[in-house]
From TrEMBL:
Pfam families: p450. This is Uncharacterized protein. The keyword Transmembrane applies. Heme binds at residue 461. Keywords: Heme, Iron, Membrane, Metal-binding, Monooxygenase, Oxidoreductase, Transmembrane, Transmembrane helix. SUPFAM superfamilies: Cytochrome P450. InterPro entries: Cyt_P450, Cyt_P450_CS, Cyt_P450_E_grp-I, Cyt_P450_sf. PANTHER family: CYTOCHROME P450, FAMILY 706, SUBFAMILY A, POLYPEPTIDE 4, OS08G0547900 PROTEIN. Its cofactor is heme. The chain crosses the membrane at residues 27-48.
């Protein structure tokens, strides 16, 4: 390069020399020296520039305009894992005009979520997220800043703190026992396990929020309807959408994602409006639930960061949509894995019999004495993480990860699913083996990047404590109260369906067989000093005595010994 430049300059100067008719030779020499120095400076600048601006990560060849969109597999988590085998632990994809960065190793996940936590604390909000979360004003999609800190403080320190969760234990207890009652009534018949788990969690969450639950007679119809709506919403949130990859085309909504999500969100907004209007009419001393608490926050106009009605509804949406599908899917996967390996199910049942006893129903006080059941929970979260790619992160400024440039505004996918199945970390990674968590006490606090099903850093899941309590009590109650077998014609199918929330591809249809007498259930309800009272559109728990309980045993009249 240097020789070419100096030669060209020399030739030009020679021609100029010939036409200059006796020009001073010293001028020509000076020109050559300056040209040479400029060439050297240019080469040095190129070398320095190359060092300070590392290349983008490697990745498959992309096409003009569409990038790699045409090669995407619907099962993104496994497709991204296959790319890592070819291009390494950090790679790139062009999603139209949007750059996607794929992270598939614990070391690089640590760089993103811990060493550069603040830089990656933002989200690349999809169009579906904007519609579902009232403009992206919820805890999931809010940009990192004062608003997000305010929302997270409300959720983590007040709504889902350990103290608050302890105070609503009777609600969890009631709804799980209602589910056990429902399953006793259908003993010997196939039930859709995921659907029933979904409705149980939905009843707990709506009971916490505004005291509303789905009544027993509406369980199948409304449960299926609610689940379908939420499945559609989470499906759109995980769907590749042209409006996200070509912002200029967003106004055309070519795939109809914005339109459809707006319709789904409006259905929930109608429920929220109804419940808010009811709470506005009540005195401050009645029904101290989460909605009442949030309305009081909304009335407080002196806060440095105002909590508005938009924030209130967005948090309700987070709780209902984010809290139901996730836990219910995990319980469904866990039961399916145990049914596929009956010796694991038997071992868990034996642990429960030892700790709880055959004539007792599981209480939350038993849970900490069940190490094998804890190991089952951790193993199912390893093999089938709730959010296989977490929620994509977005750097607020360009930075270097693993020696490669990650530009500002890129969409960063952290493949927890692939890391949890890495054979260099896990022995027999595709095998469901709870024993691995008895030998090594991994936790999901987000500090170990070999295992982080709830994420890590500032954006770690805010509902971890709630999810753990619901999963453990629900699964323990299911396997302590019943033996399980597949419905006739069903086969063990553990295949997954990708979405922002991971689901079973084939619903688990299973037959419950009671392990104990139904009189145990009735006695427990009588002794609990609570009974069920229909109250408008939902059931509520009221204190009562044993004499009054007899008047409500018709609610259990389908149970037979």
């Amino acid at each position: 390069m240097f020789k070419l430049i100096t030669s060209a300059v020399s030739d030009a100067c020679s021609r100029w020399w010939g036409s200059a008719n006796g020009a001073d030779e010293e001028i020509i020499s000076t020109v050559l020296i300056i040209a040479a120095m400029l060439s050297i400076f240019w080469l040095v600048w190129m070398l320095i520039s190359k060092d300070t601006h590392p290349p983008l990560p490697p990745g498959p060849r992309s096409l003009p305009l569409v990038g790699n969109l045409l090669s995407l597999d619907p099962e993104l988590h496994s497709y991204f894992a296959s790319l890592a085998k070819t291009y390494g632990p950090i790679s790139r994809l062009w999603l139209g005009k949007k750059l996607g960065i794929l992270i598939t190793s614990p070391a690089l996940a640590r760089e993103v979520l811990k060493l550069n936590d603040t830089t990656f604390a933002n989200r690349d909000v999809p169009v579906a997220g904007v519609e579902a979360a009232y403009g992206g004003n919820d805890i999931v999609w809010s940009p990192y800043g004062d608003q997000w800190r305010m929302l997270r403080k409300i959720v983590v320190r007040e709504m889902l703190s350990n103290q608050t969760l302890d105070s609503v234990y009777s609600l969890r207890r009631r709804e799980i026992r209602n589910t056990v009652n429902y399953l006793y009534n259908r003993a010997g018949s196939p039930v859709n396990v995921g659907e029933q788990m979904f409705l149980t969690v939905l009843n707990v969450i709506t009971g916490m929020l505004w005291g509303g639950t789905v009544k027993a007679e509406d369980r199948e119809s409304l449960g299926a309807e609610f689940r379908q709506v939420i499945n559609e919403m989470t499906g759109y949130l995980g769907m590749p959408n042209l409006s996200d990859f070509y912002p200029g085309l967003a106004r055309f909504d070519l795939q109809g994602v914005q339109k459809n999500m707006k319709v789904l969100a409006k259905r929930f907004d109608g429920i929220f409006e109804t419940m808010i209007a009811q709470r506005r009419k009540m005195s401050g001393d009645e029904n101290k639930d989460f909605l009442q608490f949030l309305l009081q926050r909304e009335d407080d106009k002196d806060s440095k960061t105002p909590f508005t009605m938009v924030h209130l509804k967005a948090l309700l949406m987070d709780m209902v949509v984010g809290g139901t599908d996730t836990t219910s899917n995990t319980v469904e996967f866990a039961l399916a894995e145990m049914m596929n390996q009956p010796e694991i199910l038997k071992k868990a049942q034996q642990e429960l019999e030892t700790v709880v006893g055959k004539d007792n129903i599981v209480e939350e006080s038993h849970i900490n004495k069940l190490p094998y059941l804890y190991a089952i929970m951790k193993e199912v979260l390893r093999l089938h993480p709730t959010l296989p790619l977490l929620v994509p992160h977005c750097p607020s400024e360009s930075c270097v990860i693993g020696g490669y440039m990650v530009p500002k505004g890129a969409r960063v996918f952290i493949n927890a699913w692939a890391i949890h199945r890495d054979p260099t970390i896990w022995e027999n990674p595709s095998e469901f083996s709870p024993e691995r968590f008895l030998v090594n006490e991994w936790d999901y606090s987000g500090n170990d990047f070999n295992y982080f099903p709830f994420g890590s850093g500032r954006r770690i899941c805010a509902g971890t404590a709630m999810a753990e309590r619901m999963f453990m009590l629900l699964l323990a109650s299911l396997i302590h109260s019943f033996d399980w077998e597949l419905a006739p014609g069903e086969k063990h199918d553990l295949s997954e369906k990708f979405g922002i929330v991971l689901k079973k591809k084939v619903a688990l249809m299973a037959i419950p067989t009671p392990r104990f007498s139904s009189s145990t259930i009735i006695r427990e309800i009588v002794n609990s000093n609570y009974y069920l009272i229909p109250n408008g559109p939902h059931l509520t728990m009221e204190g009562g005595g044993k004499d009054e309980v007899a008047n409500y045993l018709h609610l259990l009249n389908q149970i037979t010994d």
